[in-house]
Amino acid sequence: xxxxxxxxxxxREIATEHVLxxxxxxxxxxxxxxxxxxxxxxxxxxxxxxxxxxxDEAVREIARRMxxxxxxxxxx
Length: 76
Known about the structure:
single chain; mainly alpha
């Protein structure tokens, strides 16, 4: 991955996380239970990689941290 590609990927990730958190915050405020629903689905989450970088549990842990962060921010 070139430096430009890595930088763009990082920027997309930051922007995506921001938009996602704001969306979750908005929906959870109007329809409580969204975070619980997402949290209940984490066991089905996996890493689609087909090489030595595949790590389903690492992907699940990132999702858990995102949910915990959303709860801390007052979304749940």
